[in-house]
Amino acid sequence: MDTLVHTLLSVGSLLGAFYAGKYFGRSGLHDKFVTFLLDKLEADGYISTEIDKDGEKELIPVSEEIAKALREAYKISSKNVKVIK
Length: 85
Description:
Layout: H1 3-26, H2 29-43, E1 49-51, E2 57-59, H3 62-80
Antiparallel strand pairs: 1-2
């Protein structure tokens, strides 16, 4: 392969990648992908989200989920404990 063919192939592939990136960046495909990924992770139980006042999904920190679970477990266990006098 001589230098002219190599140059044309590399410039052509770079231009193709550039215009493909422009097209897919404008089409909103990444928004759909992120929404799908968040919905799938939430449905499978890997993350917790809540809808904020703007209508957007917001991730809930794991520390808040653990604290909520511990409070609920304490309420349940304190009801089942019998005090012996």
